[in-house]
Design brief:
With 333 residues, the protein is α+β, with helices and mostly antiparallel strands. Helices cover 22% and strands 31% of the residues. One of its GO terms (molecular function) is hydrolase activity, hydrolyzing O-glycosyl compounds. Its main location: secreted. InterPro entries: Beta-glucanase-like, Beta-glucanase/XTH, ConA-like_dom_sf, XET_C, XTH.
Length: 333
């Protein structure tokens, strides 16, 4: 527990440091100016300041909104406070997509927040799809170094023609570099920004073991500091209009600085619990863009020998189960 406490202090200090480009200084847009409600009628509430939004999930429906514009590259972020208490089965999503325009070959860049039973913490899942490549999931999952239900925290996506970077409180947690081997699997078509809360009982918590319990409803997710800083695309001409400031920011930020890379490394060593690159049950051979880190591979094999070690489930003995249980108890946040 002492090691874990030191890690929490380190990450708290890192969150306050600004190195390289900072997502914290981007222009904030109003809801009326930049977004449209998708669904949920009265379950979406815009606050009087015009820049904060509340999304609710109850027995009737979830809720959500989307950006008015399509974008081809940029920075997209929001400060989010997640529902507290029992939240199993609840999914809060902050993501880019063009599924409405390209039903069979859509692109997507996802932040998904997965609720949990009482006493267990929310988890984050990131994922990308390009050109309808849903058959090749590129998910990663993580714990956080803070309680996301106690206060607002910033979650951001940088998308350029060569990089996708996911941020939490200005700390990069995942970098996806476009490689030739990915082909069309790298998102490359204009997308809108979507934000939703919905019932994911069938899969979100322990593979669907625990679903939404509406005894604890309403589930309320709060959003503020909404940022759309990118290259808007005319829906008819399909040509991006990128102001000089946004274009310069994208170029400046697509390379992670050495100090940011140190922060990302600490986060991934301590808090990443799943990566498709190491999943031996789904992919006998890692997808071509994967760069396998031996230390990450060893740590995940200890965390879950079945998924990451290729050990058949019926061969797991009591020693394996005890070891994983001990790790979950001391390192989960």
């Amino acid at each position: 527990m002492e090691t874990l406490s030191r890690f929490l202090v380190i990450m708290s200090l890192f969150s306050g440091l600004v190195s390289g480009f900072s997502l914290q200084n981007l222009p904030i847009t109003s809801f009326e100016e930049s977004y449209t409600q998708l669904f949920g009628d009265k379950n979406l509430l815009v606050h009087k300041d015009g820049k904060s939004v509340r999304l609710t999930l109850d027995e009737r429906t979830g809720s959500g909104f989307a950006s008015n514009d399509l974008y081809l590259h940029g920075f997209f972020s929001a400060s989010i406070k997640l529902p507290s208490d029992y939240s199993a089965g609840v999914v809060v999503a902050f993501y880019m997509s063009n599924g409405d325009m390209y039903e069979k070959n859509h692109d997507e860049i996802d932040f998904e927040f997965l609720g949990n039973i009482r006493g267990k913490d929310w988890r984050i899942q990131t994922n990308i799809y390009g050109n309808g490549s849903t058959h090749s999931g590129r998910e990663e999952r993580y714990h956080l170094w803070f309680d996301p239900t106690e206060d607002f925290h910033q979650y951001g996506i940088l998308w350029s023609d060569s990089h996708i970077i996911f941020y939490v409180d200005n700390v990069p947690i995942r970098e996806v570099k476009r490689t030739e081997s990915m082909g069309g699997d790298f998102p490359s078509k204009p997308m809108s920004l979507y934000t939703t809360i919905w019932d994911g009982s069938k899969w979100a918590t322990n593979g669907g073991k625990y679903g939404v319990n509406y005894k604890y409803a309403p589930y309320i997710a709060r959003f503020s500091d909404l940022v759309l800083h990118g290259c808007a695309v005319d829906p008819i001409e399909q040509f991006p209009k990128c102001d000089e400031g946004a274009a310069e920011d994208i170029r400046a930020a697509q390379e992670i600085t050495p100090s940011q890379r140190v922060k990302m490394g600490i986060f991934r060593r301590k808090l990443m619990t799943y990566s498709y690159c190491y999943d031996r049950t789904r992919y006998k051979v890692a997808l071509p863009e994967c760069v396998v880190n031996p230390a990450e591979a060893r740590r995940l094999r200890v965390y879950d020998p079945v998924t990451f070690g290729g050990i058949p489930r019926h061969h797991r003995n009591g020693k394996h189960r005890s070891k994983r249980s001990r790790i979950d108890g001391t390192e989960s946040i």
